[in-house]
Sequence to fold (33 residues):
Amino acid sequence: MKLKTKHITVTAVMIALSIVVIQFIKAPLMIAG
Fold:
């Protein structure tokens, strides 16, 4: 049970990080474009 909860937390963190990375990539493109 603990392992599954940890796996869900890791997945959520990865998704959050990918969203942040996408925002950092998109923001300069929006300003430049």
In short: Helices lie at 2-32. The chain is about 95% helix and 0% strand. Residues 1-33 form one domain.
